[in-house]
Each structure stands twice: as structure tokens, then as C-alpha cells.
Amino acid sequence: xxxxxxxxxxxxxxxxxxxxSKVVLTSNTSDYSFVLQSSIRNxxxxxxxxxxxxxxxxxxHTSHIQSAIICSRKHGFQIxxxxxxxxxxxxxxxxxxPFLIIDLFSLRSISIDIQNGFAWVESGAILGELYYxxxxxxxxxxxxxxxxxxxxxxxxxxxGGFGTLLRKYGLAADNIIDAKMVDVxxxxxxxxxxxxxxxxxxxxxxxxxxGIVVSxxxxxxxxxxxxxxFRSVPYTMxxxxxxxxxxWQNVADKLHEDIFLHAILVVSDSSSxxxxxxxxxQVQFLCLSLLExxxxxxxxxxxxxxxxxxxxxxxxxxxxxxxxxxxxFSTNESLDVLLDxxxxxxxxxxxxxxxxxxxxPEAGLEGLYKMLIEEQTSMMILTPYGxxxxxxxxxxxxxxxxxGNLYKIQYLVTWDDEDETxxxxxxxxxxxxxxxxxxxxxxxxxxxxxxxxxLGKINNNNGNTSYEQAKVWGFKYFKRNFNxxxxxxxxxxxxxxxxxxxxxxxxxxQL
Length: 511
Ligand code: FDA
Hints:
Low-confidence stretches: none
CATH architecture of the largest domain: 3-Layer(aba) Sandwich
Number of domains: 4
Distance between the termini: 29 Å
Radius of gyration: 23 Å
Shape: globular
Mean pLDDT: 94
Number of strands: 19
Largest sheet: 8 strands, antiparallel
Bound molecules: dihydroflavine-adenine dinucleotide
Helix content: 25-40%
């Protein structure tokens, strides 16, 4: 410890070298456990047997990141970087080798330049803070990122990042115009000095394989003074749900790009608030539209009359109120809730993802309902693609899932009892197996930000990584972009310092 502390002080910039004891936490430091646990979102990784880091570095200045990289290399610690801690498999804060966490929660400043339409946001900020800061300055600007306000900017933007503005403006990563990062040698890079290949890779390829992204320059997007929100009643499958879902599969990606119509499948039992509408599997539709009510109603009447969307079922609100709405808050709530990093769910969870390129036939849906009903706490979120997502080429940035996808599925199951973990994970794997004939193939594509170690992992212990092993999951997340990511990785981090169970491997000849 002593030697690590000395190393850290000597590499921090002059003005910040005396902050070591405040910035570097060990298991003897009083707030070590609090900091470690504060942004763990998945209780599967919050128990006594979960490996703990030797140090948690909480940088308040870029030079602390530089020191942490240099000193962890010198002392042989693997580096895990954490921004918001939402990684579904805990890779930002768990490793099975001696490791340290660089937790960026103190680096979260945001500066908004409305006149020129951009913002600089530090990776440790959460999405809610970004939305809050934009709304403070303008009600005609927004940003197309995720709906959950506590998601961290660092992981989210580097892995893609989508929300209700997806069909109009694409992903968060599509709207990044510059970045500042620290590389394996502790050097600070910007877009100009990192070059276009690396800048391409950190937009959708995940930052953690390449270095530590300190901040992002993002393009703000235009939103109208009021947007329109609609939520259908939940439909049980017998009472029309299946017919609606079939129609949705055929139209959701073709609607006007100003209409984002999610479909959510849940299981309702007699204790659930939605049981007034019947029990069993239910589908509910949620819409955010940038159009005014009448126009939305008339377009929906034309494309999806079965849904029966009427102006009186819609609510007009400001874009920032819609952010509250989709994050699960009341639209009358103070915007301050968006700044709260601790508000969201903290149970056990397992998630997976799929892309659908052909509508799932009725027989396939029937079997799916039978599986969902087995686990009352399961949920499927179907996110429509099309619009702007179909206009951007698969190789524009590292995120590849574009034209040809009707929608993306997120499968989610949650539970409260640790002893039931195997049962729920087993069920999720069976569900995924069942879906095989109905989703994309060769590769069966997956969304990198919905991390899933079932897709495969590389041997993290000895630093050697096999391209052959990694391409199994690599092609699912990145399609053909995977090969270019390997090329970029080999150039920027040839000794594979920045690695985890699903990091981009280095070409074998370089090891
Ligand atoms: P975390 O800190 O765990 O990091 C995730 C990964 O990125 C790790 O590998 C980490 O090392 C790396 N990383 C983090 N910061 C980095 C940095 N500064 N430089 C380099 N690498 C870095 N997704 C979505 O698109 N839309 C959505 O609406 C949602 N909603 C949502 C809700 C909830 C409750 C969860 C748990 C997750 C989501 N997600 C999501 C998925 C989310 O986008 C994904 O988990 C992100 O990677 C989370 O980023 P964090 O910074 O919070 O995670």
C-alpha cells in the first residue's frame, strides 16, 4: 500500500499530489465499503464472496487517472473503471485477479453551450444530470440517451446508448463529436490526438478495452416546446394483445421517425395493479412523439388503427417532463430527482438481448407467453428501430445494429432471494434458447450495453486473449466491426492492459 501511495502522489500533478489519501481508498478507509457499494446496481455482485478491489481510486482531477493507470501497471493490478455501475455483469467493479477500481463519480461536471448546440460532459455524470443541465438552459434542446436517470455517461455512451429519441436522432454514441481520454501510458488524448480509428472505436465498442474516457463532447438535438406522450392500457394476450403485438411488429419500425412506440410485455398476477385488465401475460404500448397531438393521432389512425390512439388519450408535456415520465417519476416532481444517483432498483437481475429482423409468428408468440408465465417477475422490452437508425451505416461507428432490424428485445428477470439465483438464470437461458428460431442469425446479434457473459468470455487471468474465443461474442455485439476493433485495440494497447472478461483482444502476434 505504502509503495502504491508513493507512486500515486509522485505521478499526480503538483497541485493534486497532496490529495492521495483522500482519493485512494483501501479496505481500512472508512468510506471504502460505502463507495464500493453505492453504485452496484445488481445484487448478484454485492455479497461477501464477491472479490473486492485492493484500492478504489476516486479521481477529482485527470492527473489522478493518469497516476492510477501508471501505478496499477507498476504494481500489477488490473484496472476496472466505473462511471455509473450499471454493467449487468458487474465488470466495472469485480475481477477475479488483484485489481483496483477507478471510480469516476466525482468527475461529473457538465458544461452546456446552447448557442453552439453542444455540451461537454464528464464520464462520471449520470444521464439525469445531463438532462437536468440541458433543461436548465433550454426547453428546445435535448439529448438522445437512455431513459434510466442513474445510468452513467461513461459506460453508456461508449457502448451505444439509446432512449426515446432513438428513431429521430440515433444513439448517444452517434452524437459524440469529441472526447478526452487517458491511454495505457497515462497520456491524455483528444479526438485530434487519438486519431479517427480510436475515436471510432470508443463510440459503441465500449471504452474499457481502450483506456479511460474522461469526458465527451456531445451534439445537443432539437426538441419541440411540447412533446406528446401516450400509454395504452395493458392488454392480455387473449383480449387482443396478440393481435396488437403482431401489428406492432409490422409497423413500429416504419412509423414516422418522430414517433417512438415501445412495447412492453409483463406478467400480471392477481396481486398486480394491472390485474384489473386481466391476469397472465400482458402487452402495453408506450409512446413518445415529437409531433403535436392531432398529427400523432392522425398518423397512428392511418398506420395502426387497431391501437385506437385518440387525442384525448395523449398528454402534452415538455421534453424534460417526458424524461421524468419515462424514468418512472411523476411529471410534477421536482427535476432534482434526476440528480439522485441512488433512486433506482437494486435487486438481483439477469438480462439478455436479441435483434428481430422478421416478425415473430403467432405460434412463436404463444410459446413465448407460456415461458414468461413461468416467472412472474420477467419482462420483455421491445424497442422499435427504423428511422434514423436505418440511415446510419453499420460501420459509421463501432455500434453496428442498423438497417434491417425491426426491433430489439431486452429480456429481464429479477428476484429477491440469493438462493434462487441459479433457478432464475437457468430460466433465462431456456427462454433465450426458445427464442433462437425467431431472432437474428449468423451472428445472433446482441447489444453490448446489455452485457451478457453467457455469450462467452475470455480468460482474464493471464492476460493472453484468444481472438478465436473472443470472436464468438465479439461478432454478436459488433458484427464485422469486431475485426476493426481488434486492429484498433492492438495499436493502442498492445500489451492488453485494459482487459476484462469481454474486452477486445489483441492480435496474437503482438502478445
Ligand atoms: P459501468 O460503470 O458499470 O460501466 C459499464 C462498462 O463501461 C464497464 O465495462 C466499464 O468498465 C466501462 N466504463 C465505464 N466508464 C468508463 C469510462 N469512463 N471509460 C472507459 N470505460 C468505461 N442502456 C441503454 O442504452 N438505454 C437505457 O435506457 C438503459 N437503461 C438501463 C437501466 C438500468 C437500470 C440498467 C442497469 C442499465 C440500463 N442500460 C440502458 C444499460 C447501460 O447503458 C449500460 O449498462 C452501461 O454500460 C452503463 O454505464 P455505466 O457507466 O452506468 O456502467
